[in-house]
Structure formats: structure tokens, C-alpha cells
Amino acid sequence: MKKKTKSTIAFIVVLALAVATVAIAYFGVGDSGKLGVDGIRLGLDLKGGVNIVYEADVDTEPSQNEMNAAIEMIRVRLDREGYTEADVAQEGTKRIRVDIPGVEDATEAVEQIGATAKLTFVGPDDEVAVDGSHVKSATKQIYQDQRTGLTKTVVSLEFDSEGTKLFADATEKYLNQPLAIVLDGEAISAPTINSVISDGKAMIEGNFTSETADILAGRIEAGSLPFDLKAISSKGVGAKLGIDALDTSLFAAMIGIAFILIFMLVVYRAGGLAADIALLFYITLLIIVLSAMEATLTLPGVAGIILSIGMAVDANVIIMARIKEELDRGRSVRVAVDVAFDKALSAILDGNITTLIASGVLYYLGSGLIKSFAQTLAIGIIISMFTAIFLTKLIMKMLINMGINNPALYGASKEGKKDSKAIKFVEKRKVKYIISSIFIVIGLLAMPFNAFSGNEILNYDIEFKGGTLMHVDIGQDFDIDKDIRPIVIETTGDSAPHITKVVGEDEVIIKVTETTTEQRKDLFDKLKETYNLEDTDQLEVGDVSPTVSGEMKSKAIQAILISVVLMLIYITIRFKDLYMGASAVLALMHDVLLVFLIYSVFRVPVNNSFIAVMLTILGYSINDTIVIFDRVRENRGSTKLKDKDIINTSINQSLSRTINTSITTLSVVLLLFIFGTSAVREFALPLVVGIAVGTYSSIFLAGPLWYDLNRLAKNKKKKPAKKTA
């Protein structure tokens, strides 16, 4: 059988497999629809879930430490059950409100999450030495070690009288052995007994930070709570972003993906066809994997998908740009494809591995939405590398063997056509430095200006700072965005209220940032007037705590900082140049600060999506910069040009790739902004700006910064040493 016939049959098989994966991703397998899009659980923001209110079953008012411990216990259980995107907040003085996405059986959720935690101290022989009921308190303590002079963070335990005796016996029995602290069957710590403790007071030492010590203390106290939690209500709730958020977002995504496929086909022709088939495989495989894992998709998860789509497209664009270069050098199509894939491999791997490093750190250190973002991003990157590196090349080989080997169909320049004049990026760098500095200063000055104007430095919404909850029985059908939202904004002044509809009821739950008694009254009075309500229709009103805890904020910051440091180390080792790593990080900081400008100047609400947006910009920006530095590395090894000329040449060579990748990625986000609900637009706007400034910094700043850092280092070495008398 001829090669052409074999390749034609293979191409038809690939197309059939592409259609099959699209069908599986859309319809699923079997009656349950497993592996299909319906198997992906949607978060509270996109679909809603179950709302449960627990109350401390105690006559006296519990202490704040006890309530914090109960909240920590619930968060641990939610994470263990896979509900990492759930919201937990204190309401009033003795209630805890829990919102769980993707749950239909509220009764089962109540039993799983709300049962009293069981804490035990277990010896290496698996015998229970003491149970949690004998723990009087567990607190974080910071003290200075008199022997070493070092400051230490520990967890201090105190037992009741019976617990003191039991613990003394245990420390004597297990001296110099570990004593595991087990919560709900899971060992949360296993400190070694260093001495017999007879006074009922112990310290757990370790490499604790302030946050990790707080977490351990909270978990121990959760197992020794003096009260049960009883569920006083459970109900289904609609999507936090509104009923239309999912439909409009899906519509925008479908148009965006269609635009990408058409763009690739028009710009890269036969190569674009191969890339399009590979991209279809990527999208459908991503859906199948997320469905198989029963992952929960939230708006931050959408950000991770957008970033991974951008990187999947980018890998193909890098390859197509390389093929064009090789064809313009006079190579045959077959040779050009082989050489282009070999040359593009390092840039693709470096960009994806750098982002994978970040997603790994985020998943390990993060919690809740950060884990969701990191998981979705990592899965997307791994699949995109497989489809771009393996499938695109395989399909292009088939097309060539089928006789589709005209160089013009793979991007070769027309005969006699000259490339446009090279742009001198390094020579014009100072103007770009000044422009960027002006915008950064504006963003930073906007925060104190906001404070002096009587506002907060940033527009924190209820997820970050807590506020007021009002539960009202409207008594008739209503539209959240058209009817309720305008009333809430007008009476409370909160530009981004969280409003959800109770499933199967004409009830609404309204959450706004902190309000005065007068504003609460005005809000209900307006609803009362509009819907002819009675006073009894206000079912509940009270204060709620933030759902984004201090621990989540600190973990997010810690994860980002560690990610940036690891990126710097990787780039420095991979490119054998510290200044490349440093300039890449400086360009990254520039992009983050300019996105921050959008939040501070335009008062975009800071909520869960804020963290996801910043993480997306981090991944997109570093990938963009690495592609250009890969060219710099290649040109330094193959030419004797000066650094200035190497930078200019490398950026010009990468320019079409950078612009085309930005166009395709921006198209999806812009369509989300155009067609999305108001809440989705607040998410899409900073992303649009972030992708735009990421493109700008990779073209105009990263390379010139490397040039300046290199020049400074060389000048420093040349500077003669001062003479001494």
C-alpha cells in the first residue's frame, strides 16, 4: 500500500477519533453521561448548590475561639470530601453558614460535615491514650528560647484534671516516641515525647509559621468542642453570579473557540488545519479528564482553562512560525516541519514547565479556589503539550504524505516579498520604561487616594471582608439582575452584592458588605414596597464573616512568592543566565502591578476571582517572556552580534507569534466581557488588561531589561579598583 493511501486512511481515522471524542465530551458515556461535560461539577458561582446553617447546640454563648475551631473543623472536612470550593462563614455569634457546590442531597451533606469531630492522642502501639474531651485549650504561642535566643512558634496544650493524669501516664509510657494527634481518623500531627509531662501543660514544637500553628491549634480545639453543631436549615441555592452567568459564559467560549479555529486556518492554512484538529482533541480531552475526576469548575477554574487554551494555541503558533522561517530559508516542507518542531520544542517545554512549577506550588500550598485553579491549569497544560508536540506533528506528516506539500500552504513567504523593516526595541526602551512607570505610580497612588476619599484602598467585597446577610421571602417570581440587584445597589451602595435565589422557592438571599442599621432598613423597606411584603417576610438578617479566611490569603501570597522564586531559579539554570531570570520576574511584577491598577483605579471588586486573575497573569506573562528569551539564547549561540542586536533580532523574529497568540487568547476573554453578566465582566476586564500588558511587557520590556542588567554587570566588572595609599 502506498504511503499516500496509508496516510489518507490514517487521516480519516484521526478525524473519526476527533468526532468520537467530541461526542463523548458532549454526550458522555452511558445513561449517566459519564466522561461528558455534564459530569463536571459546577461551583457555587456558576450553578449553585446547597446552603446549610449550623448552630452551636449550647445554652451559653460560645467563645470566638470555639467558633473559629468549629469553622476550621468544617473546612477540613469539606476539603477531605473534595468540596474545596465550598464557602464557610460565621453568622452572628453561634451560627455557621456553609455553601457547598454540586450537592443535591442536603441531608447527606449535613451528616458528613456537621457531626462533632473526634480527637484522640494515639501511641505507636495504636492505643488511645487520651481523647479530645479532656483538652481544655489549644493555642498558638510565640516565645524566645532562653538557650538559643531564637524566637519559636509552638502550639500550647492544656488538659483538664482527668486528662492531666492520662497524659502524664502516656508521656511516661511513650517517652522518646511519637504520640499521634488524630482527628476524625486522620493524623494531623505526631510530636515526639521529650519528657514526662505531669502538670497537664504541653508544647508541640516543629517548623511552625504563625499560620500553620493557628491551623493545628484550631484543629485540636475542633476535636474538643464543648458543643455539638445542629443543622437548623438546609436548602438549595442558585448560582452566585446569576442564573445567566453559565449560559452566557458558555456562549462566549464557543464563539471564542470557533474564532480561534478559523483564525488558525486562515493564517496558517494546512498547518492551521493540523493545529485545529489537535486543538479539538485538546478541548475534548480536557473535558473528559475533568469529568472523570469529578472536578468542580468555578470561575477561577475558567481562568485556568483560558490560560491553558492560550498556551495550547501558543505552542502551535510557535511551531507554525518556525516552519515559515525554515521554508523561507529554502527547505522542503517535510524537512522544514522536522526542523521547526525540533527548534520549537525547547520554548514550548520551558514555557509549560515554568507554569507547571507554579501550578504545583499553588496546589500544594493553596486551599479552596487556589487548588481548583492549579488543578485545572496543570491538567490543561499536560494535555496541551501532548496535543501540540505529538498530535500536530503527526497530522502534518499525514498531510504531507497525502501530497499536500505546497510551501505556500504552510506559511512560506511569496517569492520576492521582503520582510518589513526590523523594529529597534532596545533603542526605544527608555520611553517604554517611563510610560510603564507612570501607570504603575498611578495605580499605587490610587490606593491612598481612595483612603483619603473615605473609601477602602481596594473595593473588597463580602468574600474578603464579610458583611450583612438578609434572607427575604419575595412571595412571587423575580429576576435577580433586573429586579433585585438594582434595589440592593441603590440602597446599600455595594456595587457587587452576592444575590442567590433559593431553589424551588420565591426566596432570595442577599449578601452585601457591612451596612448600617439604616441601610438594612432601607433595603427591606424598598423590597417591601416593591413586592408588597409583610415584616414577617424578612426571614433572617445578620452579620456574616468573610469566606476567604486569613489563612487562605496568607497561603495565596506564600504560594505566589515561592512560585516566582522557583521560576527565577528554573529560568536562571535553564538559560544559564541570572539576568534573564531577573528581567523575566521584573516584567512579571510590572504586569501584576498594572492589573492591580485596574482594581485600585476602577474599583473592580476584590473577591475570589481576584486571586485567580493574578495567578493567570503570572502564568501568561512568564510564558510569553520565555519564548522570546529562547530566541535570545539561540541567537547568542549562532551569531556574533552585540547584545543590543541580539535582543532586537529575537523580538522581531517572535513578533508575529506573540501578536497572534495574544489575539487568540484575548478573543475568548473579550467575548466573555462582551456577552457575560455584570459579575463575569468584573472577572474578564482585569484579564483583558493582564493579557494585553503581558504581551506589551514581553515585547517592549523583558528583553531591554535583560540588556540593561547585562550592561550594568559588565560595566561594574570593568570599573577599576580604587587605589589605596
Topology:
Elements: H1 3-27, E1 41-42, E2 49-57, H2 64-80, E3 87-91, E4 95-101, H3 106-114, E5 119-122, E6 128-131, E7 135-144, E8 151-159, H4 161-173, E9 180-183, E10 186-189, E11 201-204, H5 210-222, E12 228-237, H6 245-292, E13 296-297, H7 299-328, H8 333-365, H9 369-401, H10 429-452, H11 462-465, E14 467-473, H12 480-492, E15 498-501, E16 507-513, H13 517-531, E17 538-544, H14 550-575, H15 578-601, H16 608-638, H17 643-675, H18 678-700, H19 702-718
Parallel strand pairs: 1-13
Antiparallel strand pairs: 2-4, 2-12, 3-4, 5-6, 5-9, 7-8, 8-11, 9-10, 14-16, 14-17, 15-16
Verbal overview:
Helix content is 59%, strand content 14%. With 725 residues, it is an alpha+beta fold. It folds into five domains: 3-26 and 241-410, Multidrug efflux transporter AcrB transmembrane fold (Up-down Bundle); 42-116 and 231-237, Alpha-Beta Plaits; 119-224, Gyrase A, domain 2, CATH 3.30.1360.200; 429-439 and 551-715, Multidrug efflux transporter AcrB transmembrane fold (Up-down Bundle), CATH 1.20.1640; 467-544, Alpha-Beta Plaits (2-Layer Sandwich). The longest helix has 48 residues, at 245-292.
Supply the key terms.
Gyrase A, domain 2; four-stranded antiparallel sheet; 725 residues; 19 helices; Alpha-Beta Plaits; Multidrug efflux transporter AcrB transmembrane fold; alpha+beta
